[in-house]
Amino acid sequence: MAAPAMSRQELLLPVKPAFIVLTLIAALLANLLPWSGGMLWLAPDFVALIVLYWCIHEPRKIGFLAAWALGLLMDVANGSLFGQHALAYSILAYAGIVLHRRVQRFSMAPQVLHVIPLLLLTDLVVLLVRALAGADFPGYAYFLGSIIGAALWPALSYLLKLPQRPRPDPDRV
Amino acid sequence: MEHTPPPLFRTGPTPLARLMIFSMLSVVLLIADARFNYLTVLRQVTAVVVYPLQRLVAAPAAMGKRISEFFVSHGALRRDNQVLIEKNLELAQAAQQAQALQKENAHLRGLLEARTRISAPSKIAEILYAARDPFSRKVMIDQGSQHGIEPGQPVGDHIGIIGQITRVYPWLSEVTLITDKGHLVPVLNLRTGLRAVLAGTGDDGLLELRFIPLSADFQTGDQLVTSGIDGIYPPGLPVAEVTNVERNTAYLFANIACKPLASVNAHSQVLVLGPLPPISERPQDAPAAAQKKRKKS
After folding, report:
1. pTM
2. Which of B232, B69, B84 is nearest to B166 (CA)?
3. CA-to-CA distance for B123 and B43, rounded, in angstroms?
4. How many Cβ pairs within 8 Å bridge chains A and B?
5. Is B131 close to A81, i.e. CB distance below 8 A?
């Protein structure tokens, strides 16, 4: 018998690479939405979330190159320092790939507990880079986006697993 | 004989090695960007890739706004119309006075042989989105180098200055707001004529005057306008209002807090003012010039 914290392993179809690309583009679009005011603080970094998801679930299909390139795109869209998100996403991808066997074994709640520190680490890398470049600490609200992003993790896992669920076979009873 | 692993086990470099490679690349980019500003071209190219995505995402919001604009009530339109008519009358009167004043001013300036102020052409632009960067105060507008925008142009609204263009992409440009930490505006106190430098704090709605001696005459409620000595902002545009003056003799300088007059965060439409004519080069110091001449001869 598996321990209660362990997840029931599902049998899923292999992921189509096109689906991964599609979700990454969707995440990029979500990040580019014209957020404003308070929402700017609350909005999670969708790209980080999706990159982490695929690094944990399909570490052989997505890798550092995708994470790094997406980071560069984010940097240009934000007008921030060139390479800060690229660095942060590379480290996130590394953490995801190294921890993927461990995180996959857990059920949803412990998975979220794994995701929170990883997203905070991403924030911390960006914070460190900006601090070195001479910026002030923007306040603790800066980390709110990551907490909210981690809270979205269960819904995200459910949605991203949907296309891989095998169709019920009509010939079987 | 060479032993290569079968394709199933061929995974390339280890994750740690890859992390090192990509981190190094990022750090190189960071240094090149932050220290040397080498990456303008790369930034432009990437911006062109991102641009269609940005427009695509902004489209539903823009459409929603247009639809809601279409369904304005009759009452609201009439009220607006009434207000506009009254305002128009007021402004017409002011304009007539201004005309007279302008003529008089031109005459006086002619007498003083002063350079007339150049009213540069301005452009209306729309704010697309605020940059997702909690460390800076920047917005993106929908006019770029294709529309003739250049870095350094001041941006304002109907009340006053909100910032200046810092980066230009083909179809959009980045405006650094006056509240950005590290953004400075040379200003003039309207009441006393004292010059000062107004700095952003990175906090919305808070600006501070730097290096003002304790004895300087600044009061709560003083209006600050651009002084125009930087060659970027045209002189005489309203910028901020002094909200709090704190004089502590323990420090060398007074602590003066101001709040921006133009609503830096609220507008969707802004005015990009035309670039000012470049300031003439600073004349070289006499000894340096003499040395050069000596070298040449």
Report:
1. 0.75
2. B232
3. 24
4. 131
5. no
Query: What is the distance of C-alpha A34 from the center of its chain?
Result: 20
Residue among B32, B10, B27 at smallest CA distance from A91 = B27
Helix (H) or strand (E) holding B3: none
Q: What are phi and psi of B88, to 5 degrees?
A: -60, -45
Asked if residue B116 has pLDDT above 70, the reply is no
Contact B25 A138 (CB under 8 A): no
**Which residues on chain B are in Cβ contact (under 8 Å) with A51?**
none
Q: Which pLDDT value is given to residue A134?
A: 78
For residue B148, the distance in angstroms to the closest alpha carbon of chain A comes to 20
ipTM over 0.85? The verdict is no
**Cβ partners under 8 Å of residue A4, min gap 6:** A107
CA B53, CA A70: separation in Å to the nearest integer?
Answer: 13
Q: Which residue of chain A has the CA closest to B168?
A: A79
Side chain identity at B140, as an amino acid letter?
M
Confidence of residue B266 (pLDDT cuts 50, 70, 90): low
What is the DSSP secondary-structure string of B249-288? TTSSB-EEEEEESS-TTT-SEEEEPPPPPPPPPPPPPHHH
Sole residue written with tokens 């008089």: B104
pLDDT digits (tens, 9 = 90+) for B224-251: 999 888 888 888 888 999 999 998 888 8
What is the average per-residue pLDDT within A156-170?
A: 85
> To 5 degrees, how large is the angle CA B204–CA B131–CA B165?
80
CB contact under 8 A, A82 and B42: yes
> What is Dmax (Cα atoms) for chain B?
97
